[in-house]
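Archive transcription. Copying these from loose printouts into the bound notebook so they stop getting lost. Printout 1 of 2:
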Amino acid sequence: MTMWRRTYLLLLLVRIYLALSPSYIHPDENFQGPEIIAGQIFGYPNLKTWEFTSSHPVRSVFPLWPVYGLPMLVLQWVWTETGKEAVAPRLVYYALRLLMFILSFVLEDWAIHELVQSPRERRIAVVLVASSYVTWTYQTHTFSNAVETLVVLWSIVMIQRILDNKHRSSLLSSALLGSLVAFGVCNRITIPAFLLPPGLYLLPHFLRRPCSLLVLGTTFILTSILGIAVDTLFYHPSSTEPLFQILRSDPTITPLNSLLYNTSTSNLSLHGLHPPYQHLIASLPLLLGPALLLFWYIRKPSLSIISALSATVLLSLIPHQEPRFLLPAVPLILSSVRLPSLAVLKRYWFISWIIFNAILGVLMGIYHQGGVVPAQLWLGQQRQYDSGLSKVFWWRTYSPPVWLLGGGELLTVDLMGMKAEEMMDRVSGATEGYKGGDPTSVGLVAPKSSVDLDAWIEKTKSVMVFEQLWTTGNHLNLDDLDFEADGIVGTLERVVGRRGLVIWKVSRIPEV
């Protein structure tokens, strides 16, 4: 077995380990996918965010069904056939993570093999992509951006196949490209930024083989109609009219709604506005780290690097920018560069690359909000632990996925980053009164790094009881960083040194 193969297999083990580690990179990985479909299939409690509840919904459910819905339906069928009880949210959660790992391992790595022709360069490209923390973490989480990455890669593979096959119409590749683009637009409207510039290379082919353009257009239209039909059914659940009539009178075209929403600066200001150079000075360095230095070693202009660079420029024109918006650019860039030829430069670059990805991999793959999912899964089973909770407040964490509760009557109250004094008033007020002759108890989920909570517990110990029900140390709350107030050392000691998440049972001491 060659060194490259052994390295790749080792990196696969890292990828699957982090895929099954319950870190929580961004709420969208749950609330824009599994939260919705799990509620539809299993009847789990779920929270529909504004993207799904506005009068002009901007999020399509069409891509969610094949990516998340189909695996859930298979899981439900297997459980029903074996005569077992309802599928536990824990099993669904880890099954989806395993699925995302498989999609990354099979489709992403396969696409790299297709796009890089030289065997030597292919080995380097595959290992670079496989050794990126972005592949280990973002790409194995249930992000629409992870799905977009796969669609972009395989769309470019189809474009390349069409261009390479100059003497044929490449009808199959054209048909697949049309469906992929339509599916990708329903998933995220940013996909044209990645595909439009490479797609321009197809114009001469379409002039020579107009039937290819006809096939591509047909599959694009048919897939788009299917997506609009699925979304229209989802967003008109109480309509008694036939689907055909609804499509004629009031179709739900979520990509168009999303485009109109995201072209309004006033709308984007609600999510945060960034300068046009944000992707260049922040997003790309965060995603690529030392790999940015390899821009000096780009092999040659290719569809991959054209796609990555054009998308970076075009998406920089949008005022709201997040690193994950450039997720497809990571494998495109890493598969387009060479390593330094000088041995000493290559050695130092490899050291920096390993350190960068090890740090970010551990942070984003294990610790980043890593207690939220396990805590919610535990709360979903809290009846068997007899915790006596009916309401749980979450403070200074990412929004907990409601579907992970799996049923029951436990009420989740997300206090987000509420000020400590307001949080104390809300929780204290909820403990007033009695339930079944006993003082009312509520749950409070908070990071260990919150020193305000320590002061409150000490101050109210004569009138209130704080019982620790559950805790984990695999939780870092980066939103709790406050270098201005605590200084660098003080902040790191508090946030890193006191990392973790706790579920408290809060109640009042009965008056005598």
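Printout 2 of 2:
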Amino acid sequence: MASRELIRFARATSRTAAWSLSFYPQPILNLRRRSTAGTTPAFPFINVLGFISYLISTLAFYSSPMIRGQYAIRNPSSPKPTVRLNDVVFALHAVIMSTLGWSQFSKRIWGFSQGTQNVGRVIWALAVSCVLAIVLMSLFVASRPRAGYDPAGWAWIDVVYAVGYVKLLITLIKYMPQVYTNYKHKSTVGWSITQILLDLVGGVLSVVQLVIDSKLEGDWSGVTGNPVKFGLGNVSVAFDVVFMLQHYVLYRQARAGGKELEVGDEAVEGERRRLLDGIDADGQR
């Protein structure tokens, strides 16, 4: 039994470490380049809301007696949620690092040269809709006869599930603006591939941990009872593969050909070339 718990701990720690480390390469790259060109602010912006949602969800399943009690009643064959302390620590760290990443798009704070500054109406609409949906659902559950304390009906655990689904929805959407940005510029310059490789490791380990935990418990309701955690790992892996294809296959010439121009700095490069052409012309005269 002790060895089984040790194996679980090792897998959980490895996954958390990989995902936590994946937050550092992009801010470090931005700091080194003194620029956010090549990346989109939509990604860190919506990530903040997503990880706040994930933090609320994991905290509820980990520490709330009411939520854990309602979970046990609904999942009698596997009454213990699969959320662990490392999930809570990861979520808190993710909120902090996502906020830091978003702040780098503020020229007033960091003074970086900027690429795309527009978060986009779709992303803003998604964020507002998610918050509004959770507020309305909370009011609905509170208005029920037992005010959400009856797990047989609409209960507060359903609100927690909804908050978790916000994170899952955001994960489905958040990578798309960056995928499109890379496609538009036919380049991944400015977008850290290291964070993607670490995210891939974390995503794979997340799914493996959840599946093995459920198998050791002898019941697959550990997966069906925590679809957010299971879905997050799979969605992350899928987008990581897309980014790897863009970086190593589709747009590798942007790096291999020595094209290290920061995306968004084309105007600056064009002006530099015009000046050089003018100098050459003067020299020939």
